[in-house]
Amino acid sequence: MSAPRAATPGPGPGAVPGEALHGRALELELGSSTQTSHRLLAYSDALLSIIATVMILPVAHTKIHPDQKLGESVQQLLLTKIAVYLMTFLIVTVAWAAHVRLFQVIELIDDVLALLNLACMMIITFLPYTFSLMASFPGVPFGIFLFSVCAVVIGLIQAVIVLYGFYHPHLLNQQIQVSENQNFYKRHILKIILRGPILCFLAAVFSFFFIPLSYVLLGLVIIFPHLSRFITWCKTKILGQRNEEEEYHSLETFSFYLSEPLSKERVEAFSDGVYAIVATLLILDICEDNVPDPREVREKFHGSLLEALSEYGPNYLAYFGSFVTIGLLWFVHHSLFLYVTKATRLMGLLNILSLAFIGGLPLAYQLTSEFAEKSHNEIEAIQVSCVITFFASIFQFAIWTTALLHERETLHPFARYGGKEHAFMFAKLALYPCVSLGAFFLTCLLSEFSTEIFHLMQIVIPFAFLALRIFVRISLTLIKSVMSLSRRKVVLLEEEEACLSPTDTLS
Amino acid sequence: MSAPRAATPGPGPGAVPGEALHGRALELELGSSTQTSHRLLAYSDALLSIIATVMILPVAHTKIHPDQKLGESVQQLLLTKIAVYLMTFLIVTVAWAAHVRLFQVIELIDDVLALLNLACMMIITFLPYTFSLMASFPGVPFGIFLFSVCAVVIGLIQAVIVLYGFYHPHLLNQQIQVSENQNFYKRHILKIILRGPILCFLAAVFSFFFIPLSYVLLGLVIIFPHLSRFITWCKTKILGQRNEEEEYHSLETFSFYLSEPLSKERVEAFSDGVYAIVATLLILDICEDNVPDPREVREKFHGSLLEALSEYGPNYLAYFGSFVTIGLLWFVHHSLFLYVTKATRLMGLLNILSLAFIGGLPLAYQLTSEFAEKSHNEIEAIQVSCVITFFASIFQFAIWTTALLHERETLHPFARYGGKEHAFMFAKLALYPCVSLGAFFLTCLLSEFSTEIFHLMQIVIPFAFLALRIFVRISLTLIKSVMSLSRRKVVLLEEEEACLSPTDTLS
């Protein structure tokens, strides 16, 4: 009955048919249900991206009275919360990067691995809470202790995943499966995965004796991967060719997954998660806070719902403003990664920095909605929005520049230097940094019209994106015609010279 | 320079190389940047799934004092909010289904379509707010009016997307591209897309005259697709073969995308989004509400942070409990869809119903955390949790049963009736319904131990999942041996009969 359909190639549990068949054959052989990890990874990416951006909520919900100037104490509180947000974001992205690496080694999963991964996710989603404890009680060791314990547990679970994977080698990456020195790989991967947890364990121990040292150790966890890479890079630069050759050799004995490029799909999935949750954060608030109380409407507004709702006008404006900005920045990110074939680690870092600022956008727009009327802080709020937008978009620009530096490995042929698509991409990426910088300085100069400038900016940008292609084409044609004119001039001059030169050389 | 790399097959903007090349060729020809829609759809799925589940937050945040019995008024309020949640969930899933259908017709996108889609998403994410206005002011036409206007705008944007797609036929599905009667397809798709908005437009008009009619019209929007399908089904059953043939014919002139199966990838992506946001909803609350105030800790707990935190114990327990339940239900869903090759519309509907109950889980667990101490409502809270878990898991079970009814089209060969994988899947799906039902009745009988039973259930289930494979294997072997024993008995009996029968027939 099933025989005629068994050969149908239809979209099955294995996205890559060869791999699925391979896993299938082994499954029949070993009697365990092996699966591709694609959906598990997508789910993990969604969880991690939500958790990374969650800590912006306490920042955004810090209540500031509209007639109160941003005082010292409020600023202090805001700064602490922003620091917590940034630290959480970076720590979660470090955990995410480790997770990416882990599942580049283990390519197929089974039920045990899926459950272990879920346990790991559960502890990771608890991290933001330990961080906010640390921020509220910087002098109490318990916060650091709890955080470190969580990190150690995460590390141990991931180590168990690695050991389980190497115990069932059919789950591993093909390249490791066929290699002879699996033990070497195992030790190397365990070293990478347990590096952070060991530092955290030390931090937990020291938290009872000398707290500042614990903080230094935790800071090390975040910058360690980049630091070690930077040191290697410096060494290569200083010691020159010999070392580079050696590094090349070590890259060869390791395989692709231990070298630079991150998985492009997972970078995209994580970014999509962050953009999606950030885009919807404001509507969560609006749904909860901005539905008027029926009794209040009856008493205060004489039953006119429309009048009551008009009170919330600035909130709606802020929502649409933030959604448009985030949507368009996603659009730029999407266009950018269409041209990218591989993401290097530096591009990954820049992407994460860009995302960290994206996470700040709802805060910025909440500020603009709260200060919209009769407030002293209107200009500050708008300027904060401009600054956040500027940094979010300039880091996207930096991703593009970094990609261009290694364009052979990272970019599609048709997006490299000089093509029309290249110019268009450049214009897309430059739009937001230019406009936000322009708006920032305009609000400094014309401080009375700051709100008008801001709203104008929001309305103009989407249309600018639509018209960008036409604009780029016109300017390219202009440049070309100017170039050809000047070239013709040069040719004419050369001809003139050529006409003159014989007499010159003769004389 | 780019020539030697141009042929590299690497993972590019086109997931399907042939399609990408096709798009690429056209791009060069037409000078527009055509892209595959994969990432746009993933982002849309993430946004829609978050928005669908968001309205559970107002339900979960309804404050109930622990010593207050669930009174009439609170129950009324809760019921209204739950109704809003369910309505929002269903409306957003209807919008999602329309979106899936739309992008089955339009397979490639360009910048204009991406921006139009983002505009569409922006309006959709605003829908929950209009719904909560409707719930708070059921007698005021403005809420319905606003909702209907949003729905009409969404319909118009989608219609523009369709028209744009048919104006640039290289963006369309291959099957439509090569077909001769594109106009017929265009009209058909426009009819499907504009059906809902037209009903909403009527609702908006009637909202000023006779509000109940508007509500009926809005209800129609949700059930219309299922209703029309049900009527067709009934007709087929009553009128029999003749009609079925006709339907078959019409299915042939339409193509696969207009017939039943939903895109499996998008069902998975949407479900993942819902599971991910629901799993993290409780930690959002914990991060905001359960960080003690430093001053309070100093005054009330004599500076002991640990003591202050122990107050929140039940909240942590609720968080881990809800994460584990949602994680395991995701795990079951994941296992289920590994065996599914195509999702029929009925399976999609059952999946959405299951997800709607999943969305209720954080609420249930919040109830258990709030009532954990000195409360009259402990048992009710636990029973609500059990009921929600039961329905969420029984609908998953129903997906499996429905899939089995059409197993040739919907399931992988190795998961069909009778295989070992089949028995294992069955056990996985049956675990949660059985346990939650068992816990429900146990709490009725042993009401003093309800909390203990509930916690025991939470701890036991993950281990049950790990041990399930072993358990299934043992029971299968047992059944087999029993079967073979009884078969041997039957054989023996038959032999005896055979020995006896000649004499019997003789006598």
TrEMBL record, chains A, B:
Protein's cellular compartments: Membrane
GO molecular function, one term: potassium channel activity
Annotated membrane topology: Multi-pass membrane protein
Record's keyword annotation contains Membrane: yes
Keywords: Ion channel, Ion transport, Membrane, Potassium, Potassium channel, Potassium transport, Transmembrane, Transmembrane helix, Transport
Chain segments annotated as transmembrane: 40-62, 82-100, 112-131, 143-167, 196-223, 316-339, 346-365, 381-405, 426-449, 455-479
Matching InterPro entries: TMEM175-like
GO terms under cellular component: membrane
Reactions catalysed: K(+)(in) = K(+)(out); H(+)(in) = H(+)(out)
Pfam families: TMEM175
Family named by the database record: Belongs to the TMEM175 family.
Protein name per Swiss-Prot or TrEMBL: Endosomal/lysosomal proton channel TMEM175
Source organism per UniProt: Asarcornis scutulata
